[in-house]
Amino acid sequence: MSTVLVVEDGLTDMEILCRYLQQAGHSVISAKSSEEAQEQLVQKTPDLIFLDVILPGKSGYEICRELKNNPSTSNIPIIFCSTKNSDVDKMWGTMLGADGYISKPIDPEELAGTLKQLIK
């Protein structure tokens, strides 16, 4: 079973994403801000990170850049999950090192396909 960190400040979106991931057989840890995400990463290294773009504190883009530039976290796949879903937003996420980008509202089939690609 893989462990997935979900960084999402919206309660409803957090619940939906966590439920989908748990139903798919993943262990889920969560954070509502960049600070909480950093605390979770110190406690346990996840196999995958779902990251909202708009968060209290640092943005998801800033968190992604920091994680990808840190040798101890650079190999963890990151998937942005955001309402910011223009081509520019997706391109920016890719430039920062994100491995995927899922638009909200979450489509369970798109989520399953992305997970299958990134978690071996």
Describe this structure in words.
This protein is of the alpha/beta class. It has a single domain, classed as Rossmann fold. The chain contains 5 helices and 5 strands. The protein has helices spanning 11-23, 34-43, 60-69, 87-95, 108-118; strands spanning 3-7, 27-31, 48-51, 78-82, 100-103. It has a 5-stranded parallel sheet with strand order 2-1-3-4-5, with helices on both faces. The protein is globular, with a radius of gyration of 13 Å.
Q: Helix count, per DSSP?
A: 5
Order of helices and strands: EHEHEHEHEH
Helix content: 40-55%
Mean residue pLDDT: 92
Task: Spell out the blueprint of helices and strands.
Layout: E1 3-7, H1 11-23, E2 27-31, H2 34-43, E3 48-51, H3 60-69, E4 78-82, H4 87-95, E5 100-103, H5 108-118
Parallel strand pairs: 1-2, 1-3, 3-4, 4-5
Task: Label this structure with key terms.
single chain, about 120 residues, alpha/beta, Rossmann fold, 5-stranded parallel β-sheet, 5 helices, globular
Summarize the structure.
By secondary structure, the protein is α/β, with parallel strands linked by helices. 44% of the residues lie in helices and 19% in strands.
